[in-house]
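To whoever picks this up:

The nightly regression suite flagged ATP phosphoribosyltransferase as changed. Nothing in the input moved, so I suspect the structure step. Input below, exactly as stored in the fixture:
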Amino acid sequence: MSETANRLLTFAVPKGRILDEALPVMARAGVVPESAFHDKADRSLSFACEAADMRIIRVRAFDVATFVAFGAAQVGIVGSDVIEEFNYSELYAPVDLDIGHCRLSVAEPAEGNPAPLGNASHLRVATKYPNITSRHFERQGVQAECVKLNGAMELAPSLGLAGRIVDLVSTGRTLQQNGLVEKERIMDISARLIVNRVALKTDPRVAALVERFRANAVKDAA
Ligand SMILES: Nc1ncnc2c1ncn2[C@@H]1O[C@H](COP(=O)(O)OP(=O)(O)OP(=O)(O)O)[C@@H](O)[C@H]1O
Ligand SMILES: O=P(O)(O)OC[C@H]1O[C@H](OP(=O)(O)OP(=O)(O)O)[C@H](O)[C@@H]1O
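Regenerated output under the current build:
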């Protein structure tokens, strides 16, 4: 047996809201975690799989991309927002899993007038996505100062932290309940299967896994 085949294949999944939708998709591709994975009291971060040569690690969504980009995990599932924000050259996202649909948008207070974009040479934006946000405003010829937050971005305008936010929107309820309106859609988002490019070339199990996900996916990513 080759050296790669002896090693455990590591599959990274985000611990939060994508997971419930991801588990049936993973199961159709033959990736099934041991029962302890579903035990809320279990504090393990790494779990055995039905396939003896694979393990599943449960990490934060942004960290899924980092584990896979650095080759610490070979495969993972993550939102296209995270892929776009990091822009890691080591990542390849071959399959759109058609789950975790939402959008990344610019929002501002429903009441009051933030400075119009055209006149603003400088703009402060609260976001978890500083890279996507800077690129977005650069395309409009506007320099955005991004204040990085990890959640509850919707509080920033009313507390004077930033005039606008860039955040994920699904139903729009969070914006509405916090006195904000969606002004501009930056990108549509869905969850993708990601693989480490080197692992894809060197470990045949990675390519086989991609094919199994692809066979069950509604559409392929470009
Ligand atoms: N309102 C939403 N509707 C649908 N999908 C969403 C929504 N909010 C976030 N997502 C998707 O889910 C991903 C977050 O995944 P998840 O909640 O599983 O991660 P997490 O590890 O809990 O994140 P965090 O680091 O914020 O704790 C986002 O990157 C996005 O792709
Ligand atoms: O349009 P909606 O359906 O209201 O969804 C949008 C909300 O969902 C996400 O937050 P999440 O619930 O993941 O919490 P977070 O603040 O921890 O990121 C996002 O950051 C928005 O706050």
